[in-house]
Every structure is written in C-alpha cells, then in structure tokens.
C-alpha cells in the first residue's frame, strides 16, 4: 500500500545503526509493522518470525502460507482464505483444486462477507481470487462485494488466491456443490410404478420400476421383479423403461376326467379371471370342495382353500344312473334292462382272422376305467383246436359302450383295442383263471350310460370267500333269454353267442344267488365228465333250475351292490356252465372269482 515505506524504513534503520542499538521491534512510530507476526531484536539488528503454520517470506518480513496442494473431491465442500474471517496471510499464492466425477458441474457460492484488498483504479492489482474451469476464467475478484454464485459448467476447477505483502483484509469463503447432468423425466409405462418420484433427475439419480399388482415386468423378453435405470453423466438414461404386462396364468392344467369352465365368456387366463374344474360324469372330487381357481398376481391359478393344488376327479365306480327295482322276489327268467342300469356293461365283438373261414363272435365285458375293460379270457382267446393259449389280435376286437339294444350297435360309442392281456395261467381245458383285460386305444367318455364298475376288495383269506354263499347278485347280458345259446360244452364252442341277433336284442338281466362251493362241486361231480371247480371260480343259480338262470354272455359281470357304500361291485365274470341245457335242475353257472385277481388287475390298470 505504501511502496516507499520500505525505503524509508531501511534508511531509518541505517541512520541509527552506528549511534546506538535501537529496539527496532518496539519502534511503532512507523505505521507499517516491521514484522508481520513476531519481531526479534538483537544488537545491531532484528529479525522476523512467523506463527506456527506460516513461513517467512523471502522478503524476511511477511508471513506466508503454503496452500497449494489441496484437492477437494467430495461433491460439496467449503473453501476459505486462511484464518477467515481473520485477515488472510500475506505474500501467499494459494491454489485449490476441486475435482468431481464427469457429469457433474461445480457451482460456487461465495459468502456475502467478502474482503480482498483492491484498488480504486486498477483491477485487483494486489490481492485477488481467480477461478479457472476448463477454458473459462472467472475473476479476478477483489474488493468487498461478494461474487455471489458462479455456475462453472465444469467438473474440474482451480481456485487461485494471491495476496501481496501488505494489507489486512478479512478474506473470503465459498461453498461449492455439484449439479448433475439432467436426464429427461421418463414417461411412466402404463401399470408401472416408479421410485423415487422426483420432479427432475440428474446424473447419479436412478429410478426403480415395478409393476402394479397383477402385472409382470417385462424387459428384454425377461420377466423381472424390478428394473433400475440410471441417469448417466451425459444426461441420458441407462436403458429404456420396461413394460408391465398383465399377468397371464396360462391355460389351466389338465386334470384327468375334469372339464374346465371359464368364469368369463372370452376364456381369459389373465390376472383376475377364473375358471372351475368340473369332474366329468361318473367321477367326483373326494375333497368335495369348491374347485374355482382365480388367476392371482403371482401368475398362478389359485383356489381359495387349496391354493395351487389341483382337484382330483376319481372314478365314481358302481353308480348306475338308474336304480334297479328293489324287487327281491325270486326272479325266474330274465328281464329287460332299462338303459343306464348297467352302464359298465359293454359288448365285445371279436373277429379272429387268423382262422379260415373267418370266425366272428360276441362277448360281454365290464368297464373298469376310461381305458380298461375286464372280461373272461376265453372270450379273447384265439379259437384253436390245440391247447395253446394265444390272444386274438387287438385289432380284431371292438368294444361298444352304453349299448342297450344291439340293433343300435352302429350308432353306439365304440372303441378299438390296443392291448389284449389274457391271464398268464388261463387253462383252456378247465377254464381256471378265466380272466382278461383289454386296453382301449382311446379313452371312453363317461356319461349316464357309460360308467365303470367297482372292483371288490382282494380275496386273500381262504376261509372267507367273496361273494358269500346265498347272497344275491345280478347278471346282465344279451344271451340270457336264449336258452339255446347259453347251453354249450366246455370243449367245443364255449359259452359264446354266435350272434346276438338270434338272442335278445335288448339287454336282459337276472338275479341269482351264489351257491356254496361244496354244493357246486357236488353238482358237477355227479356228471359223467369230471369238472374241476377251482377256488378261482364260484357258482350261482337256483337248485331247481329255471329258464335263463344260469348264464349270461361270456365275460359279462356278476355284480352285487355293496350295501354300505351303495356301489355295484363286480364279483364274477360269466365263465362256463354244464353241458346240459341251461335251466336244468342243479345246473349252476360258473363264474370267475374276480376277488382273486384284484392285485393282478391293479398291476395292469
Ligand atoms: C533476508 O535475510 C537473509 C539472511 O538472513 C539475506 O541473505 C537476504 O538477503 C535477506 N533478504 C532480503 C530481501 O532482505
Ligand atoms: C369369475 O369371473 C366372472 C367374470 O369376471 C365373475 O362374474 C365371477 O364372480 C367370478 N367368480 C369367482 C368365483 O371369482
Ligand atoms: C372357451 O373354452 C371352451 C372350452 O373350455 C370352448 O368350448 C369355447 O369355445 C371357448 N370360448 C372362447 C370364446 O374361446
Ligand atoms: C366357489 O367359491 C367362490 C368364492 O370363493 C364362489 O363365488 C363360487 O360360487 C363357488 N363356486 C362353487 C361351485 O361353489
Ligand atoms: C342320459 O342323459 C341324456 C341327456 O343328457 C338323456 O336324454 C337320457 O335320457 C339319459 N339317460 C338315462 C338312462 O338317464
Ligand atoms: C332252441 O333250440 C331248439 C332246437 O335246437 C329250438 O327248437 C328252439 O326254438 C330254440 N329256442 C329258442 C328260444 O331259440
Ligand atoms: C383242478 O385244477 C387245479 C388247478 O389247475 C389243479 O391243481 C387240480 O389238480 C385240479 N383237480 C382235478 C381233480 O383235476
């Protein structure tokens, strides 16, 4: 401030040097201080020193600071002149760097309190602060007017503060912050939610997208829980927003023997839609619960009670759609059945083309499930003179369902067969193990005239035979009313109908009592030929005989109603009869005892 002060001071010093020692340090007559901080006198001179943290400038008088190696890297901070708001050091050149990540711009805000030595005429000739950011310079600034806010447009700046060797000014202070590059506010896709919600987004901000309940987030053909986009340094988002698609539970799983009925006309499988599984005719869901499923927000069909567990439609076996007249009066002779009384009864048509001329015959069977029919082995044995047991080829067998009048055969539901399983121990000489299974090539649909029969519980105990003697069962068949067709011998043509056309057209049935094994054996022991009634057979019929009371069609069922569960159970298969005319005294029909074969059946079915 006083450029000549130095000269004057030196002269003054020199003037008194030879005369006496002067305490230069205490000589305060000079308005300029000798030393900036501390003055030390000695004989013939003095020297200056500085407070801790300061360095003596090469002028040997002022105290400067070393302040050029600070770099600020945080996204905000405060810088000030040394000792602010006390006077700043003299003779110092401070340089401060501020460096933040690319994408940010530094914004400086000077405190209103600002005091840097200036000059009324020249622009900041002594002390000044100057800011450089990229190619732009701000300042120099001095005086007592704060520069206020400076937007630098740069992420790397240098702040230079220069002070000369004089002046007592209070200095400056600034706060710096960053401003990120702004990303455009994204359009929110329909049914999407975003977080956080802000009026604007800048560098380092992000948005997490999720979808409303019932919608799934789809990004790049992938379903995700959430998706994050980041605002980049160049002011653009890292990715386009994802999309929210309505949750689609897809086609309901197929449940065997159940139909799907949608709650909405368009069969929608989207979130909120519903459907119900309906167990088909002849089947039932044992859990007996509501089988409505609703498409939940997780994309799964969900039942209010069972969750995602599916219902189970079980065969309701042995349930005719019509009940047998509760006539317990002894029946002699067959009666015409009504449609639906024996929905398990099927007609088998067999053509054995392995023989010339072609042999064609009919038999009966009983439906166990959608795919399996039970019948007698002798019905499906290829007709040969030797004792070999060869099944007929499956393609030569046809099964007719729900048939009441055989004349309607060609309109009836029918199936071909893809497997014929004769019991491996079938003995054609005595009809022991006369049982066989047929697998339908295509499932048959149940309805009120086509339903399965129940199997008995396995008969493992020798002391207890099922069915018990004297219990009454029912046999149905088209051959029942025809006396001639039902009488045959074991060795030649067994109990097969030559053609149902010559017997009855309408299905007949008869009620017959089970005959004790001893009585049956005794009746056959009295014949000229020895017949072998094995434990795998039982007999039914009346002692006194009577028309139609011995045999139905081969392979047809002897059924009894289980009084507890009120279901019809197949206990016997029409197997053979004596050589005498059917209906003669003490000529009983012989039936395969199905209870002996339950395990064998279950192995296959
Ligand atoms: C400062 O003092 C040193 C020795 O103490 C001397 O060499 C130097 O010349 C002095 N500088 C000034 C500017 O007086
Ligand atoms: C099934 O959907 C239909 C149509 O949206 C609706 O009227 C009905 O109440 C729904 N049923 C259930 C069980 O949710
Ligand atoms: C809905 O599904 C049923 C079978 O479940 C089908 O018969 C019907 O044609 C379907 N309706 C539409 C509109 O797709
Ligand atoms: C099943 O339950 C739903 C409500 O949970 C009800 O609307 C529907 O009528 C029920 N359906 C049946 C078949 O009971
Ligand atoms: C079976 O149902 C059909 C229609 O569903 C009906 O016409 C017919 O009479 C029923 N038959 C029996 C035996 O119940
Ligand atoms: C049974 O056969 C005899 C002789 O073979 C015949 O006279 C009689 O009419 C036949 N009966 C029936 C019901 O067809
Ligand atoms: C009857 O048949 C069984 C089984 O095939 C056999 O073990 C038994 O010896 C036969 N009895 C007679 C008398 O033929």
UniProtKB/TrEMBL annotation:
It comes from the Eukaryota. GO terms for molecular function: calcium ion binding; serine-type endopeptidase activity. PROSITE patterns: CUB, EGF_2, EGF_CA, SUSHI, TRYPSIN_DOM, TRYPSIN_SER. The keyword Transmembrane helix does not apply. Residues 331-605 form the Peptidase S1 domain. Residues 67-179 form the CUB domain. One of its GO terms (cellular component) is extracellular space. GO terms for biological process: proteolysis. Disulfide bonds join 67-94. Keywords: Disulfide bond, Hydrolase, Hydroxylation, Immunity, Innate immunity, Protease, Signal, Sushi. Residues 1-20 form the signal peptide. Residues 181-246, 247-315 form the Sushi domain. InterPro entries: CUB_dom, EGF, EGF-like_Ca-bd_dom, EGF_Ca-bd_CS, Pept_S1A_C1r/C1S/mannan-bd, Sushi_SCR_CCP_dom, Trypsin_dom, TRYPSIN_SER. This is Mannan-binding lectin serine protease 1 isoform X1.
């Amino acid at each position: 401030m006083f450029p000549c002060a130095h000269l004057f001071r030196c002269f003054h010093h020199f003037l008194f040097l030879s005369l006496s020692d002067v305490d230069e340090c205490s000589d305060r007559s000079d308005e300029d201080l000798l030393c900036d901080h501390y003055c030390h006198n000695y004989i013939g001179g003095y020297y200056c020193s500085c407070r801790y943290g300061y360095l003596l400038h090469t002028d040997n008088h002022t105290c400067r600071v070393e302040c050029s190696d600070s770099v600020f890297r945080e996204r905000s901070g405060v810088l000030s002149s040394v000792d602010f708001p006390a006077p700043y050091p003299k003779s110092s050149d401070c340089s401060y760097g501020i460096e933040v990540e690319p994408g940010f711009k530094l914004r400086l805000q000077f405190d209103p309190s600002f005091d840097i030595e200036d000059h009324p005429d020249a622009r900041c000739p002594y002390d000044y602060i100057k800011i450089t950011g990229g190619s732009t310079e701000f300042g120099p600034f001095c005086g007592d007017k704060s520069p206020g806010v400076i937007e630098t447009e740069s992420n790397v700046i240098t702040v230079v503060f220069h002070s000369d060797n004089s002046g007592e000014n209070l200095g400056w202070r600034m706060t710096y912050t960053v401003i990120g590059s702004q990303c455009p506010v994204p359009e929110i896709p329909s049914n999407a939610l975003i977080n956080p919600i802000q009026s604007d987004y800048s560098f380092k901000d992000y948005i997490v997208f999720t979808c409303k309940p019932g919608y799934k987030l789809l990004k790049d053909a992938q379903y995700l829980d959430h998706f994050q986009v980041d605002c980049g340094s160049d002011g653009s988002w890292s990715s386009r927003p994802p999309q929210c698609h309505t949750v689609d539970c897809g086609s309901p799983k197929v449940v065997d023997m159940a139909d799907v009925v949608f709650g909405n006309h368009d069969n929608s499988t989207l979130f909120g839609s519903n459907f119900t599984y309906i167990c088909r005719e002849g089947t039932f869901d044992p859990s007996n619960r509501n089988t409505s499923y609703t498409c939940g927000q997780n994309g799964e069909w969900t039942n209010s009670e069972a969750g995602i567990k599916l219902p189970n439609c079980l065969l309701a076996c042995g349930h005719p759609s019509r009940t047998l007249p509760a006539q317990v009066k002894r029946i002699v002779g067959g009666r015409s059945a009504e449609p639906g009384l024996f929905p398990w009864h099927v007609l088998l048509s067999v053509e054995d083309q392995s023989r010339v001329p072609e042999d064609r015959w009919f038999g009966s069977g009983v439906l166990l499930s959608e795919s399996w029919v039970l019948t007698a082995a002798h019905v499906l044995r290829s007709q040969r003179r030797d004792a070999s047991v060869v099944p007929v080829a499956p393609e030569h067998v046809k099964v007719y369902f729900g048939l009441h009048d055989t004349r309607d055969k060609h309109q009836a539901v029918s199936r071909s067969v893809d497997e014929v399983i004769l019991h491996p121990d079938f003995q054609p000489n005595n009809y022991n193990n006369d049982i066989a299974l047929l697998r339908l090539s295509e499932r048959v649909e149940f309805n009120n005239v086509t339903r399965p029969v129940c199997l008995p519980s396995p008969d493992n105990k020798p002391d207890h035979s099922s069915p018990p003697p004297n219990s009454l069962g029912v046999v149905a068949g088209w051959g029942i009313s025809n006396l001639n067709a039902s009488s045959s011998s074991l060795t030649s043509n067994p109990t097969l109908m030559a053609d149902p056309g010559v017997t009855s057209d309408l299905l007949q049935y008869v009620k017959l009592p089970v005959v004790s094994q001893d009585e049956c054996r005794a009746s056959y022991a009295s014949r000229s030929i020895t017949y072998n009634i094995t434990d795998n057979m039982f007999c039914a019929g009346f002692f006194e005989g009577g028309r139609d009371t011995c045999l139905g069609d081969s392979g047809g069922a002897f059924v009894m109603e289980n009084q507890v569960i009120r279901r019809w159970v197949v206990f016997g298969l029409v197997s053979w009869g004596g050589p005498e005319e059917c209906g003669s005294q003490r000529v009983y029909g012989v039936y395969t005892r199905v209870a002996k074969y339950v395990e064998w059946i279950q192995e296959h079915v």
